[in-house]
Design a protein that fits this description.
This protein is globular. The protein is of the alpha/beta class. The protein is built from ten helices and 16 strands. Helix 3 links the parallel strand 4 and strand 5. It folds into two domains: about 200 residues, Rossmann fold (3-Layer(aba) Sandwich); about 150 residues, DNA Methylase, Chain A, domain 2, CATH 3.90.120. About 25% of the residues lie in helices and about 20% in strands. The structure holds S-adenosylmethionine.
Length: about 375
C-alpha cells in the first residue's frame, strides 16, 4: 500500500480545509486551533489525538511532526493601506508563527489561504520577503484568487491561495473545472438548487438538540449532524414583511419606503447584497459567519414567486443549508452553540475548493 501524503493544518477552524485534503487522499497529522468549539468540531471529524486546542504560539517546535504539506490561513489585520512591512511589527505575530512552523517542518509544499484582497496586504509583502531572503528561502511561490464556484462549489466565494513549493518547480494553481459559461471539458457552475432543494422549507425547531460532548476535557454542545442543524428563527412581523418584498436576486433596494430602516434610507448606495435573496439556479454569494441574519448579506431562501405569494419561503438559510453551500458533507459533525457553529461554517474554506488544491499538490509532491 502506498503511504498517504500527510498534512498539518494551522488555524484549522472546524476543518473545512482539512476535509478537502482528506477527500483528496491526505492524512492529517496535526491541527492547531484555539477556539474550543471549532477545535472540538475538528476533533469530532478527524480525531482528537492529533488536534491541539491552543494558541499556535504555544506549540513546541520539538513536538511538530513531519508532514508533506502545511496549510493554513493566518488572519490578516488590515488592507486599506499596506501598513508596516516590518517583520517585527507585533501585528505580524501570527504570520511569524506560521513561518516558524514551515521553517521547522520544511514541508514539500505549503498553502496559505486568505481573503481575496490578501495580495494587497502587508502580510503578503512579508511572505514574498520571507521567500526571497527569509525563513521561506528555497520555496517557489505561486498565487491567485480562485473562485470556489469554478471548482464545483455552489458559491461565488473568492479566496486568495498561495502555494509554496520546494519540489524543484513552482506548483501551478489548479485549473477551473466549472464555469459560468462552460465550454469543452468544463462543467456549468453548481447551483443553490443542487445543494439545498428538498430540505424542509419550515425547520421543525429553532434550537439545537439538547446534547453535550466532551473534548479536551471540556463539555460543550454537540455532537450534531444533518437535520440537527437545520434550525429556524423567530423573525418579527416587520422582518417577515421585509423578507416578503425581496425577489430572488433582489435586496434592500426592493424594500418599499415604509419598510426601510433609517440606516438604509440614509445610505442610498453601497452594501447591495444586504437583505438579498438567493437565486435557485445560480451559486450563492459568499457565506459569511452571520448568514442567519438577512440584513448582513444575500442569505434569504431562494423560494419566492411573484404570483404564488403563499409559497414564499421567508427566512434566511439554516445552518445546514449554509454548510451544504460550503460543500461540507452531510455526515460532517458539529460542536458548539448555534453562533459558534455559524462562525465555523462561515470561516471555512469550501471543501471542494480545498480538495482541488489538495489534488494539485498531491500530484506535484508525488512526482
Ligand atoms: C479563517 S479561520 C480557518 C478556517 C479553516 N481553514 C477552515 O477551512 O475551516 C481562522 C481560524 O484561526 C483561528 N486562530 C486565530 N488565531 C489563532 C491562534 N493564535 N492560534 C490558533 N488558532 C488561531 C481562529 O479561531 C479561526 O478558527
Amino acid at each position: 500500500m502506498t503511504k498517504r501524503p500527510t498534512v498539518i493544518d494551522l488555524f484549522a477552524g472546524c476543518g473545512g480545509m482539512t476535509s478537502g485534503f482528506v477527500r483528496a487522499g491526505f492524512e492529517p497529522v496535526l491541527a492547531v486551533e484555539w477556539d474550543l468549539a471549532a477545535a472540538a468540531t475538528y476533533a469530532a471529524n478527524f480525531g482528537e489525538s492529533h488536534t491541539v486546542w491552543g494558541d499556535i504560539a504555544s506549540v513546541n517546535p520539538d513536538r511538530l511532526p513531519d508532514a508533506d504539506v502545511v496549510i493554513g490561513g493566518p488572519p490578516c489585520q488590515g488592507f486599506s493601506n499596506l501598513g508596516s512591512k516590518d517583520v517585527n511589527d507585533p501585528r505580524n505575530t501570527l504570520w511569524r508563527q506560521y513561518l516558524r512552523v514551515v521553517d521547522h517542518v520544511r514541508p514539500k509544499a505549503f498553502v496559505v489561504e486568505n481573503v481575496d484582497r490578501f495580495s494587497s496586504s502587508a502580510e503578503f509583502q512579508m511572505l514574498l520577503a520571507a521567500a526571497d531572503h527569509g525563513p521561506l528561502k528555497g520555496y517557489e511561490l505561486s498565487w491567485a484568487v480562485l473562485l470556489a464556484a469554478d471548482f464545483g462549489v455552489a458559491q461565488r466565494r473568492p479566496r486568495s491561495i498561495l502555494i509554496g513549493s520546494r519540489v524543484g518547480h513552482r506548483i501551478p494553481l489548479p485549473a477551473p473545472t466549472h464555469a459560468r459559461a462552460p465550454d469543452a471539458g468544463v462543467q456549468p457552475w453548481e447551483t443553490v438548487r443542487s445543494r439545498i432543494a428538498g430540505l424542509p422549507e419550515t425547520p421543525d425547531t429553532t434550537q439545537l438538540p439538547h446534547s453535550t460532548a466532551t473534548f479536551f476535557g471540556r463539555t460543550l454542545p454537540g455532537v450534531f449532524k444533518g437535520l440537527d442543524i437545520h434550525v429556524g428563527r423567530q423573525p418579527r412581523e416587520l422582518s417577515l414583511r421585509r423578507y416578503d418584498s425581496v425577489p430572488p436576486g433582489g435586496g434592500r433596494f426592493d424594500l418599499p419606503d415604509e419598510l426601510l430602516p433609517n440606516c438604509w434610507r440614509n445610505k442610498p448606495t453601497g452594501t447591495t447584497d444586504v437583505m438579498g435573496r438567493m437565486r435557485w439556479d445560480a451559486p450563492s454569494l459568499t457565506i459569511r459567519t452571520e448568514f442567519f441574519k438577512p440584513e448582513k448579506g444575500q442569505y434569504l431562501h431562494p423560494q419566492w414567486e411573484a404570483e404564488a405569494t403563499a409559497g414564499r419561503v421567508n427566512r434566511p438559510i439554516t445552518h445546514l443549508e449554509a454548510a451544504r453551500l460550503q460543500d461540507f458533507p452531510e455526515d460532517f459533525l458539529w460542536c458548539g452553540t448555534k453562533i459558534q457553529i455559524a462562525k465555523q461554517i462561515g470561516n471555512a474554506v469550501p471543501v471542494g475548493l480545498a480538495q482541488a488544491i489538495a489534488a494539485q499538490l498531491a500530484q506535484h509532491i508525488a512526482d
